[in-house]
Specification:
With about 425 residues, this protein is an alpha+beta fold. It is built from 13 helices and 17 strands. The protein starts with a strand and ends in an 11-residue tail after the last strand.
């Protein structure tokens, strides 16, 4: 997928691993487990290395200089504030500074995981120290800090091999440019959701709160909202599939693992055991919801009219805010005539603003992090009669020039 702001390398991996955690599921066991590469990681890293070496516009040799940069970026990504690795750790890891290039060419991830596991060890040691050594004065502050450190410790023990792999590969990818990233299968799925502004699930925004997954808000008109069975601040303690599937205890789970259990295809059923807000921890009830397509309209283009006075004359200014350049790729491929896209939405908003007799138009891109290059290109065509918009250049290929050939424009006034 070609995008502005992010170049994705979301590879179609058929044998995507099941969720793997670094901590035994037995609550009594609290021992940190060393992570190892999954079977799919070596060949995935080889594919990424080959793509960047041969296709990226900046043809950089994979040599000792690049190896040194990957080494420094990796340590920086893991410990940006330099509070976990000790000086002797960094000194001991120096042996890898000029060896990562050879390891990347071979698909060898041993050094990468050795560095990550040492980071995990130091992180755990520091958090355990902070939890155990809080002073006994100022009880309220102590309890708050203890809870925060314990939550951070719990999260560190839930780290997966995919987390380590993604950080390491991105330390390599960003040596080419800061906008080139590897997306894990789960990250890629979330990216596609953000691009299409829709997902199939229950329509609830969730977060981790202590050991629980709690409901932050409900998406308007989503299955959860329509049901009236669940509300913000309710806590989810277990999840079951279908009307009879066993309930799986999710207390203490990573948030993304809980979300994956709750999401599912349209028309399917999910059962949630919840602790309603304001009730005791043992006051649970089980609710059943039917999943559906949920529209994330708050992330779509939106407009407003601002009225202002300048030198005694009143003006009406239309403002269109664009959070991202989105498009529902799946709907387009399926031939859906009503597919969601930035260009279509903005054209409609401009028509509505013109109906309100605006004197000028502002396109607000301040918080726009990128998205679909196709949409950025077609959106530009709404404001120019014709001409080139952007060129895309890859190594060993001629530049591909995107152009707007439709002389129709959606807005001709001040912008």
């Amino acid at each position: 997928v070609a995008v502005t702001g992010v170049q994705t390398c979301a590879l179609p991996i058929s044998d995507t691993p099941k969720p793997q955690v670094a901590l035994s599921t037995t609550p009594a066991v609290n021992e940190l487990v060393s992570l190892e590469p999954l079977d799919v990681h070596p060949r995935t890293s080889l594919t990424i290395v080959e793509q960047l070496r041969h296709n990226h516009f900046l043809k950089k040799p994979l040599d000792d200089e690049l190896s040194s940069r990957v080494f420094e970026k990796y340590l920086q990504m893991l410990d940006a504030a330099k509070v976990y690795f000790m000086a002797e750790d960094v000194a001991a890891l120096e042996k890898y500074r000029y060896k990562l290039d050879d390891a990347l060419i071979r698909g060898d991830l041993e050094a990468a995981f050795e560095v990550f596991n040492l980071y995990q060890q130091r992180l755990t040691e520091r958090l355990e120290f902070l939890v155990s050594e809080n002073g006994k004065e100022l009880d309220e502050i102590e309890n708050l800090l203890r809870k925060r450190y314990q939550n951070r410790l719990k999260q560190s023990r839930q780290t997966k091999s995919e987390d380590a792999f993604q950080i390491y590969v991105n330390a390599f990818a960003t040596t080419y440019d800061p906008h080139t990233q590897y997306f894990s299968p789960r990250t890629s799925q979330n990216f596609n959701i953000n691009m299409s502004l829709s997902l199939e699930g229950i329509g609830a925004v969730l977060r981790n709160e202590d050991e629980y997954t709690s409901v932050v808000e409900l998406v308007t008109a989503g299955p959860a909202d329509k049901s009236g069975l669940i509300k913000p601040s309710d806590r989810i303690v277990s999840v079951g599939q279908g009307e009879t599937g066993a309930l799986i205890d999710v207390v203490g789970w990573r948030l993304d693992d809980v979300v994956e259990l709750i999401r599912g295809p349209k028309g399917s059923t999910v059962r949630l055991e919840i602790i309603p807000d304001g009730t005791e921890d043992d006051s649970t009830k089980v609710i059943q919801l039917t999943r559906n397509t949920v529209k994330l309209e708050e992330q779509a283009a939106n407009s407003q009219v601002i009225e202002l006075d300048r030198n005694g004359q009143a003006y009406k200014i239309g403002v269109i805010e664009l959070p991202t350049f989105y498009i529902d790729f799946k709907a387009v491929q399926q031939g859906d005539p009503n597919y969601k896209s930035t260009t279509r939405d903005v054209r409609k908003l401009i028509e509505e603003l013109q109906g309100q007799d605006i004197d000028g138009l502002v396109i607000d891109l301040r918080n726009n992090g990128g998205g679909s290059l196709q949409e950025a290109d077609s959106l530009t065509g709404l404001f120019i009669k014709s001409g080139p918009t952007v060129q895309v250049k890859a190594a060993n290929r001629r530049a591909n020039i995107y152009s707007d050939n439709d002389e129709r424009i959606a807005w001709e006034g001040p912008m």
